[in-house]
Amino acid sequence: MAFVAYDPILGEVDLSIVDNGGPGPFSIPGTSGATYGRNSQYFGEIRGYDTRLGGGAFVYAAYGATLLAGAVVQFVESLSAAGLLITTAIAWTGTANAGQPLGVAVAVTGGTGNWGWFQVAGPAITNVSGTPTANAPVYWQAAGVVSGTGVASKQVDGAQFATTNAITLGTGNAAQVLPSTQAVVLLQYPSSQSAIT
To answer: Is residue 14 part of a domain?
Structure first.
């Protein structure tokens, strides 16, 4: 899947490209095919689409660890040496009742020091365990992985499974078969379950 977006400031953006420079006012092609210094803001949001999945919303954040496409992430905040508030994505750790904002990694691979887009709304290809059921709730299973099996205090609010795993999206030459470790999850600005008292 290749989510793309068009923004009046950024122009056409391939949301799967990892940025090695972080937010900035320029768009300078890098030698590795990445783009450096996009005119994006920390945790800035953009709308994008994929021809097989439809539309979605994406936010711009730093990678706090190596993440693969489909990893469920939590966003953590820190101050840089220059006093800038930095939003960083790490694999969701599954801390109970934490109420943390969540998203899904889009780039095939991104590592510490990179910047990229993380999906927070719309149908997202997500790393899963087991065999989820369409329209069922989403729960933490392991770092960066979700499941349809209930786990007390670790449900994802603002998300539900849109499909089971190992489905085919599209037809003919445009078809993509998801592996047994991925399913489509419908996101609506998800967060981990908060404390109930």
So the answer is: yes
